[in-house]
Each structure stands twice: as structure tokens, then as C-alpha cells.
Amino acid sequence: MKNIIMLGAPGAGKGTQSALIAEEYHIPHISTGDILRKNIKEGTELGKLAKSYIDAGALVPDDVVIGIVADRLKEDDALNGYVLDGFPRTIAQAEALDKVAKIDIAVNIVVGFDVIVERLAGRRVCVCGATYHTSKLNGSTTCAKCGKELFFRDDDKPETVRARLETYEKQTAPLIGYYEKKGILVNVDATGTIEQDFEKIKKVLND
Ligand code: AP5
Ligand code: MG
Q1: % of the chain at pLDDT higher than 70
Q2: Residue 122: CB within 6 Å of ligand 1?
Q3: Which residue, 55, 69, 70, 207, has most beta carbons within 10 Å?
Q4: What burial letters (b/e) apply to 137-162, b meaning 16+ CB within 10 Å?
Q5: Ligand nearest, relative to CA of residue 92
Q6: What does pTM read for this prediction?
Q7: Rg (CA), the chain
Q8: Cβ pair 41, 125 in contact under 8 A
Q9: Catalytic member of 153, 157, 200, 202
Q10: Kind of pairing between the strands at 123-125 and 131-133
Q11: Under a CB-based contact definition with an 8 Å cutoff, are residues 1 and 25 in contact?
């Protein structure tokens, strides 16, 4: 299977689609956001460092996340493809990734600002990593996969979302050009349902 990068603004649906890709193609879903949040929850040194940046809607320093991903990609399950979600997020991270991996395709999930705001406001997440939207929960407040109580991500508060979107425009959007120049960028309009968007992404990955 391929080594895949998922690009897209906060709330575009990277995590949702990465989880489906991982399941369909039996490859690991590597999300730097999930790794950092797990460390925050466990109170590790990395978690303590990451929290201040995440709460401010800023990026965790490049050297920290580059180290995490470089180590993760050495694990056995990453030998036959993987889907990277939320990494790289800066040109420096992309250049560092080029030194340790050969990326086959960068899928850029494209949605407008209004869709992003709506998706983030309605997002509910579980400690197990599952993500939901209130529009599909039918009033349920627990995870369909593990039964635990769902919660609202701290950084989904409107003021933090604003900061995350600014960070994205300044530091991450330039990656679109970076992968376009390499000839491996594919833009996917992801304003449909989760299932419709996934069908489009599968077509792109199977090409
Ligand atoms: P991270 O966790 O990566 O957050 P993000 O990029 O802001 O993206 P999100 O997870 O918010 O959105 P998503 O695109 O995954 O959308 P989702 O699928 O959940 O990073 C968090 C923080 O960690 C960063 O701000 C930074 O501080 C730090 N960090 C992480 N990586 C880093 C790095 N490499 N370098 C430095 N710092 C780093 O979908 C959103 C909602 O929409 C859900 O409710 C979902 O159910 C719903 N939804 C999805 N698709 C659809 C659809 N088609 N129709 C209807 N609803 C949908
Ligand atoms: Mg995500």
C-alpha cells in the first residue's frame, strides 16, 4: 500500500477520512494530534510541553514532532504503507519527512470556511480516538465503539479555532504548493457526506 499524507484545514475531515483509509487498506493511521493529546492526558513531559501550544492554537515545535514521527515510522506496522494525519504541517517538517520516507500521494481535503466552523462546533470525540458529529449522534453522549462518555475538544472553542485557522493559513497551506511541485498532490472536494467523500478518496488512492 501507499505512504499517504492527508492535508487540509482544521476540521476539514482529515481524522475521519484517515480512520476509514486505515481500516480499508489495513495500514496504520498516524495522527500527531492524537499522539500529542494522549501525552497530555497521561501527563508526560511531552504532554506538558504540547499543551501550551495546542491551547493557543499554535504548532508544537518542529523538532519535537519530527522526532515523534521519525520514530513512529520505524515501527514494523509502518513498513507496508501508512496514512499520516496532521503531519507534516510546516515546510521544515515536510523536508525532514523527505529524508526518512518516500511519500506516494498527498491528499488535500478541500472544504470552505463555513463547513469547517460547522464541523468543529459539532465535533465530539472519545478517548479511544473515535470522532463523531452531533448531527449523527441522535442525542447519544457515549462512544459507539467503546461506550465511554464523549467530550468536546478543548481547542474547538471559537477563539482557539480562529487561532488554529490562522496558523493553518500561514504555516501549513504552503505545503499544498510543496507537494504540487513534486507532482503528488491530489485535491479532493470534501463537502459531501463522510461516505461520499471516502468514495472519492478511494478512487484517488486506487489510481
Ligand atoms: P490536530 O489534531 O491534527 O487538529 P487539526 O489539524 O486542527 O485538525 P482536526 O483534528 O481539528 O480536524 P480534522 O481535519 O481531523 O477533522 P475531523 O475528521 O475530526 O492537531 C491539534 C493540535 O496539535 C494543533 O493545533 C497543534 O497544536 C498540534 N499539532 C498536531 N500535529 C502537529 C504537527 N505536525 N506539528 C506541530 N503541531 C502539531 O472532522 C471534524 C468534524 O467534522 C467531526 O465532528 C466529524 O465527524 C465531522 N465530519 C468530518 N467529515 C464530515 C463530512 N463529510 N460530513 C459531515 N461531517 C463531517
Ligand atoms: Mg483530526
Answers
A1: 100
A2: yes
A3: 69
A4: eeeeeebeeeeeebeebebbeeebbe
A5: 1
A6: 0.96
A7: 16
A8: no
A9: 153
A10: antiparallel
A11: yes
